[in-house]
Amino acid sequence: MATETTSYTCISCPIGCPLQLEHEVDTIREVAGNNCDRGAKYARQEFTDPRRSFSTTIPIAGALHRRLPVRLSEPVPKDRILEAAQRIHLLSAEAPIRCGEVLLRDLLSIDGIDVVACRTMLPLE
Amino acid sequence: MNRRYDVVVIGGGPAGLGAALAALDAGTESVLVVEREPEAGGILRQCIHSGFGLHHFKEELTGPEYAERFVQKAIDRDIDVVPNAYVTGLALDSDDTRLVRVLSERDGLSTIECSSVVLAMGCRERTRGAIRIPGSRPAGVLTAGLAQKMVNMMGYLPGRRIAILGSGDIGLIMARRLVLEGCDVVGVFEILPYSNGLTRNVVQCLDDYGIPLHLSTTVAEIHGRDRVEAITVAPVGADLQPDMSKAWRETCDTLLLSIGLIPENELSQSIGANLDLVTGGPIVSSSMETSLPGVFACGNVLHVHDLVDFVTEEALRAGRFAGQWARGVRRPPDTVSLVPGRNVRYSVPHTLSPDRPHTIYLRCKERMQPCVLRVGDLINKKLSFVVPAEMIRLKIRPSLLDNFYGDRLTIDIDPRD
Ligand SMILES: Cc1cc2nc3c(=O)[nH]c(=O)nc-3n(C[C@H](O)[C@H](O)[C@H](O)COP(=O)(O)OP(=O)(O)OC[C@H]3O[C@@H](n4cnc5c(N)ncnc54)[C@H](O)[C@@H]3O)c2cc1C
Ligand code: SF4
């Protein structure tokens, strides 16, 4: 069977190595161009199930600022980022919130992907 | 807030907080941090994406999480942090006391006495005036960092249809951020033939969302009377001048500028610290001391860093020396000056002392791959690549300088095959 090459840019660190992944249909043969193991892992993941993490904000009442920054505990499938962001934007919070507090479990019904507060916000005195 | 401290730190970002903690570790009794915002933490409070802390904490944190760890440490160590307070001036008293003039919301204008001072005021963004785009002056033209603060802290969108001039990392990150908030991002326009931001940010902030990056292209004109209605963009030639015969119009209501950062040095300048024309920050010795005795500097006020981890590393050093100074330690002046050579835009600190280990930060002028970094005849280090967007960090062991009797070391980056 013919071997095909798919190219990626590794985003696991600031170097940004250009990666080439050789595959026969769905079977990965080889990864080249990576400076370290994380690059090979990234290319395999990108080929089989590309995922991304992101941060966004939700409204918060009674705090110094009007927005609370939140992040994901685990990356979501790349093609569901916008859906995930829209779901998170339905949330709202009220001070006090502690950094690390889970605001929503199993985002998009995916086990283990939680929405987590990235800072503490105390109530205004 | 008391009237007298061992060390006063100006600015409560990661640099200021790191320096304050290190000054305490050096054995000082009292440290004051003056912060003009309502809370400490600095610019990281608005940088909600992750990628911070891999060096310092060995885990990937968001900006607010990184900042909070330092704010918490400052609280745990009883460091006085005065928010809503602005340092307006600094003077040297006859008996080696430094006088810091603080304008605060709570106490009005006051003068604080201290032995040493750390400058940690961070940086600010270049604005449109700095590059002068022709056209009208409608609302809707703002810096990417201001947009970041509006979206991530204040809860406003700067507009609905966004164009971004300049491909700095903050602009790239805001492109993704605004798409997640439901805006259209029409494109990023970069005058140079390569992106100013990291490749990973081009991939994960633009490519992932189908946002076009137009290289060798600039915004030639802004249209709209009250609000931005459109921009004219045009490719540029080798002389960086727009070729209007190939210009086109992009409809948008907002133009974000992501054209670089400059150290915030009005204060340093007004107190007479010598500045480096390239970095825009003070000239410092290997103990991070400026040309003013007992006044130290670290973080983005010294030179613009791309990784906050290195800000922390530098701040811990500046704070330690400021603390030692407050305790009466006086060091002989450095004997070796460090000079940027071929393909080196700048290096910090500006001088070295043979008796201590040093960490040097430098930036190249242009991309080179592969290359070799040389420090006089002492260091010969092979690097796989260098890019201006990424600061280079270099350690020098004291033993290296043992047999060096010169007074000047030049740093060069040369190609190798
Ligand atoms: C818009 C923007 C986005 C950035 N994004 C990233 C990023 O994504 N990743 C990254 O690693 N780095 C980023 N940086 C660089 C980042 O700033 C540094 O990593 C780090 O935050 C610098 O720390 P600092 O303490 O030197 O400066 P800052 O965090 O800017 O802190 C300086 C503090 O000093 C205060 N101050 C200034 N003047 C005075 C005065 N006269 N009196 C009292 N207080 C004063 C300010 O209010 C501020 O809180 C960004 C910088 C900017 C400007
Ligand atoms: S392969 Fe390794 S070195 Fe290259 S970009 Fe990925 S993580 Fe960085």
Model description:
The complex is a heterodimer of chains A (125) and B (417). Chain A has 125 residues and is α+β, with helices and mostly antiparallel strands. The model of chain A has no long low-confidence stretch (mean pLDDT 94). Chain B is an alpha/beta fold. Chain B has 3 domains: 191 residues, FAD/NAD(P)-binding domain, CATH 3.50.50; 133 residues, FAD/NAD(P)-binding domain, CATH 3.50.50; 78 residues, Immunoglobulin-like (Sandwich). Helices cover 19% and strands 32% of the residues of chain B. Chain B contains 7 helices and 27 strands. In chain B, strands 1, 2, 5, 6, 7, 8 and 19 form a 7-stranded mixed sheet that branches. Chain B has a 5-stranded parallel sheet with strand order 10-17-11-12-13. In chain B, β1, α1 and β2 form a beta-alpha-beta unit. In chain B, α1 runs parallel beside α2 and α4 runs parallel beside α5. Chain B is globular and about 65 Å long. Chain B starts with a strand and ends with a strand. Classes of the chains: A alpha+beta (125), B alpha/beta (417). The structure holds flavin-adenine dinucleotide and iron/sulfur cluster (SF4). Flavin-adenine dinucleotide binds next to α1, β6, β9, α3 and α7 of chain B. The site of flavin-adenine dinucleotide has 37 residues of chain B, from α1, β6, β9, α3 and α7.
CATH class of the largest domain in chain B: Alpha Beta
Content of β-strand of chain B: 25-35%
Strand order across the biggest sheet of chain A?
A: 8-5-6-10-9
Report the principal-axis shape of chain A. Answer: elongated
Class from helix and strand fractions of chain B: alpha/beta
Largest sheet of chain B: 7 strands, mixed
The CA-CA distance between the termini of chain B, in Å, is 59 Å
The CATH topology name of the largest domain in chain B reads FAD/NAD(P)-binding domain
Chain pair forming the biggest interface = A-B, 30 and 30 residues
Question: How many helical elements of chain A?
Answer: 2
Q: How many strands, which pairing sense, and closed or not: the largest β-sheet of chain A?
A: 5 strands, mixed
How widely separated are the two ends of chain A? 70 Å
Low-confidence blocks of residues of chain A: none
What's the tally of helices of chain B?
7
**Quick check: average pLDDT of chain A?**
94
Percent strand of chain A = 35-45%
Number of strands of chain A: 10
Mean pLDDT rating of chain B: 93
